[in-house]
Amino acid sequence: MNQENENLEVWLPLLIALRLAFRFLIFLDLELFPVFFLNIPLLSKMPHGFLLPYLLGMFFIEVGLLWTLRKENLPLKSLLVYFGTATVLEFPYAQFKGLLTGYFDGIFLFVLPWYLSALAGLVTSLKLLFRMP
């Protein structure tokens, strides 16, 4: 059972690094890329000016989690909060809505790993939480 936990722990830094790489893409164009990568209807209900502090905060959290995981600590509660928040606030709403209405765009295949990494991280963190002694 301990070997299985170690196998799951290997994936967490890789998932966070993938999300960090996509985060850099969002910072390249703060007007267009959030539409592709984030849950815009939900974020539009947040206070004005919430988007940039949120993106910067998630960037620093990702760097901090990578640093902590590199030192072989496993902050499961922090990982659950991070991946849970990412699963809700970073749901690519516009892409999935377009897919459901019959409009398939190639950007969907580019955005899909971004969202799947949040779901995979959440599931992995939950598995590790419930398997830890």
Spatial shape: globular
Measured as a percent range, the helix fraction is over 70%
Strand-pairing-aware structural class: mainly alpha
The protein's oligomeric status is single chain
User: In total, how many beta strands?
Assistant: 0
N-to-C CA distance: 10 Å
| Rg calc | 16 Å
Question: Could you give the order of the helices and strands?
Answer: HHHHHHH
Q: In terms of per-residue confidence, which ranges show pLDDT below 50 for 5 or more consecutive residues? A: none
Biggest sheet record: none
Detailed description of the structure:
The chain is mainly α. It has seven helices and no strands. The chain has helices spanning 2-28, 33-37, 40-43, 51-70, 76-89, 93-100, 107-131. The protein is globular, with a radius of gyration of 16 Å.
Key traits:
mainly alpha, 133 residues, globular, 7 helices
Task: Give me the secondary-structure topology.
Elements: H1 2-28, H2 33-37, H3 40-43, H4 51-70, H5 76-89, H6 93-100, H7 107-131
Helix pairs in contact: 1-4, 1-7, 5-7
Quick structural summary:
The protein has helices at 2-28, 33-37, 40-43, 51-70, 76-89, 93-100, 107-131. With 133 residues, it is an all-alpha fold. The longest helix is centred in the N-terminal third of the chain and has 27 residues, at 2-28.
